[in-house]
Amino acid sequence: MNLRNYLVLAGVTVFAAAGDSMLSHGMKQVGSISLNHLQGVIFAILNPWVAVGIVLLLAFFATYMTALSWADLTYVLPATSLGYVLLALAARFLLHEHVSPLRWLGIALITGGVGFVAGGPALTEHLDRETAGVTAEGRAAAGVGAVKS
Amino acid sequence: MKGVYTWCAILAIVFASVVGDVLLAHAMKQVGDVGALRRRSGLVAVIRRTLGNPNFLLGVMAMAVAFFSLLFALSWGDVSLVAPAAASLTFIGNAIAAKIFLHERVDRRRWIAACLVAAGVALLAG
């Protein structure tokens, strides 16, 4: 994990939070979509907030894919969980939604939970394979030794 | 009634997201380190290789389902409920799915994290 990797993770976090906030703001302007008029979803895209939100979520997607190319899914998701805090702050101060103390506590627990994972290794998927490889090499070496003796 | 709609939309987001995340994570592991690949063969090659991966395309389709479910959920509920609830439940689903399908090493630290997140979700819903 170098600086570039951390910047990608920060990008995932910020783009996701900003994109979701803009979508929320835009969809509140568009209003409730009736199940009988699903085409309303298409018109929602014409709202500028929804459009910018979609662009930001595309940026999120590009950084997310980059992160997934060198890290575990169960590492990337927690590592970018600071987004929940950003979302709560955005909801409170930009969208002026009410965020109750219990919700704040929930957000704190989620963030704490993810802090647990952040300290571990970024990629475990290949650890098992490497360990298996070492064991196989060890066995091969032992086998060679056995033949020699 | 809006609450029921919101939660149905949230569950739809979670299911589609978990399927999508697992497919996309698998696809990107097949593509390989994007940074190294870009330095070696250029950005166009990276994009072509990613878009040509069948798992990537299936993952994007699942994510599209999740995205439209999100649009519905956001029009019915607050962003500070919908986004954390859907994302956190997705996180737990992903921890299970990543262990089973991606063979990631989900150790005790990661399970404790999943439980804390579950508690956080319960509080957000209350």
Number of helices, counting only DSSP H or I runs of 4 residues or more of chain B: 6
Shape of chain B: globular
List the secondary-structure elements of chain A in sequence, H or E: HHHHHHH
Cα-to-Cα separation, first versus last residue of chain B: 16 Å
Cα-based radius of gyration of chain A, to the nearest Å: 23 Å
Query: Which ranges of chain B are low-confidence, i.e. pLDDT below 50, for 5 or more consecutive residues?
Result: none
Number of domains of chain B: 1
The oligomeric state is heterodimer
Distance between the termini of chain A: 44 Å
Keywords:
heterodimer; A: 149 residues; mainly alpha; 2 domains; 7 helices; disordered C terminus; B: 126 residues
In short:
Chain A is mainly α. Chain A has 7 helices and no strands.
Textual characterization of the structure:
- The complex is a heterodimer of chains A (about 150) and B (about 130).
- By secondary structure, chain A is an all-alpha fold.
- Chain A has two domains: about 5-120, no CATH class; about 125-149.
- In chain A, about 80% of the residues lie in helices and about 0% in strands.
- The longest helix of chain A has 28 residues, at about 5-30.
- Residues about 130-149 of chain A have low confidence and may be disordered.
- Chain B has about 130 residues and is mainly alpha-helical.
- Chain B has helices at about 1-30, 35-40, 45-50, 55-75, 80-100, 110-125.
- Classes of the chains: A mainly alpha (about 150), B mainly alpha (about 130).
- Chains A and B meet through helix 1, helix 3, helix 4, helix 5 and helix 6 of A and helix 1, helix 2, helix 4, helix 5 and helix 6 of B.
